Amino acid sequence: MAEELRKYEKMLKDNKLKITARRMTMIELFLNEDRYLSAKEVQEKLHSVYPSLSYDTIYRNLYTLKEIEVLESTNFEGEMQFKIACSDHHHHHFICEACGDTKVIRYCPFETWQKELQDVEITNHKVELYGFCQRCRTSA
Question: Which residue ranges traverse the bilayer (predicted)?
């Protein structure tokens, strides 16, 4: 974990951002959770350590960390959700609608889309599948 945190400290430095205990605690939270979290969930999880940390401060930090690609985001149920960015290989995600658990989907249909859309240039894409994980399906 310490090695991973140093990597994120370097990302903050490289982007001329202060390395604060709050930011590092937030990054550590996302490393431990490995799922999408809302700003409200982040606030609830950090409340015991930082009881005066405002929702606005959390939201600003989430967007800052997203801008420098520490976090990635998705819009889920009308609310922006964040998770630690996946940077080791190209893939997509399945996201459980109940618990937010995220599973990696390694298959990418990009080449099929490019063949079907020969007259366009696709510059980027993001695929997310939503449903219920096995644990949430069986507990409902």
Answer: none
Contacts of 124 (CB under 8 A, 6+ apart): none
Q: Give per-residue pLDDT as tens, 2-40.
A: 888 899 999 999 999 999 999 999 999 999 997 889 999
91 is in an annotated binding site: no
Place of tokens 């922006």: 80
**108 is known to lie in a ligand binding site:** no
Q: Which amino acid is at 125?
A: H
Q: Which residues contact 26 (CB under 8 A, 6 or more apart)?
A: 42, 46, 58, 61, 62, 65
Annotated binding residue at 133?
yes
Give CA–CA dist 15/23, Å, rounded. Answer: 14
Inter-CA distances, 137 with 28, 36, 65, 134, Å: 29, 19, 33, 5
Q: What is the pTM (predicted TM-score) of this model?
A: 0.77
Q: Which residue in this structure is represented by tokens 């490995």?
A: 34
Report whether 99 belongs to an annotated binding site: yes
pLDDT at 134: 92
**Residue 96 marked ligand-binding:** yes
